[in-house]
Amino acid sequence: MPEPEKSTQDQNDETEINLSKAMPITASLDETIRFTYKDVMETEVDKRYFLRRLKKELGHGKINFDVEMRNDDFFLKFDLAGSVFREEEIISVFKRFLSELMNARMWNAHTGRPMMYIHEKSGIPLIGHTAFGIIVRGTNVIEVRPISGCPLQCIFCSVDEGKNSKSRQMDYLVDPDYLFQEVQKIVEFLGPRGLEIHLSGQGEPTTYPYLAELITRLNSIEGIEEISLQTNGILLDEDGVLALEKAGLTRINLSLNCLNPRKARALAGTSNYDIEHVKKLIDIILRTKIKLHVSPIVVPRVNVDDMNEIIQYLKKMGLGRFYKAPLGIQNYLIYPLSRKVKGIKPWSWEEFHDFLHELEQKHAISSLILDKKRDFNMVKRKELPKPFRKGEVVMAEIKALGRIKGEILAVARNRIIQIIDGKKKVGSTVRIKIERTKNNIFTGRLIG
Fold it and tell me: What is the pTM of this model?
């Protein structure tokens, strides 16, 4: 005969539960409780309301609840008062309440910006914007952007990321089920052969709390032959790398711009950047089956000489023995909203290529001017259908605040349309003139 399930009272009259052990949360506590879930999603609630809500949800009005922080763990304390209920019941109620809080008000722990959770029922498609979702640029590479926001503030960042961004107002986190479902549709359209998933974004993809889970599921799709990840590496450790390898990650594109600790911190825009951690990470990756591609950005007069040190270090590590394209130096470029390094004029492409040729000769290495087909097996594929044409006027519904200050996001024909300088409220129906359609990334302006 099976034993009855134990209640909290059966277990030596326990009167507390460590909720940080039950789920991946941390908290700070005063009159307001501030929760951080999986190190990235934050929300808060008035302490008194939280305790009242637990009483109501559990149906135990006579029980006195309280909360306490102890050694960074969040404890729920309670007086049983003669009532018997299971620990699993309390944890279930807490999870449901936390999810409700996150849906109502959530922000990114790394940037401090509001964060929107995008799921199948949110009414927001995953094609049309560059900050989140899916981008297909007429090749066999499917870009998947599950999250925005970055813990670094690189002085040359092309998307002005980090907590001190002057242009960004919103972050996004996409539900893994929704991403998986929409990627399946794109794979079916492109044909299940020779496809690559590239996990990237306007920020750091390893802040995504469901990364290994998502990779595991994407790896199960027929036709996905490569899954690559762009990262700065600061949030990865050995356990994380091994988890990603097990999930099916096949290549890491690692940002590494300098080996000097002081200069590396200056380039990253934060004192928290640890180049020694990144160097250890390289060693860890090279002991796995994951291919490693190191991708520095060279900024004229700032880290030019550092490229020599990086090449020497990577040769010492034996990187070229493991992957045909181990190094891809990138040219510092300026975009409309990117950070600009004061007093620095970017190189022309001719100047940049001359610099790469000099490095090749000096270090006796193969071509640093990479070829997409040769080095990354990137080939052309049919483009996704575009539901709009440039200049067309369409009716759309405003669904959310945009990523950039002053931007709003509209939805029509299962696509997102980015509207700059839009002042309409969420829920409004508007007329939009489409101004961009390239790669199914849409921008427009309000008319009328």
Answer: 0.91
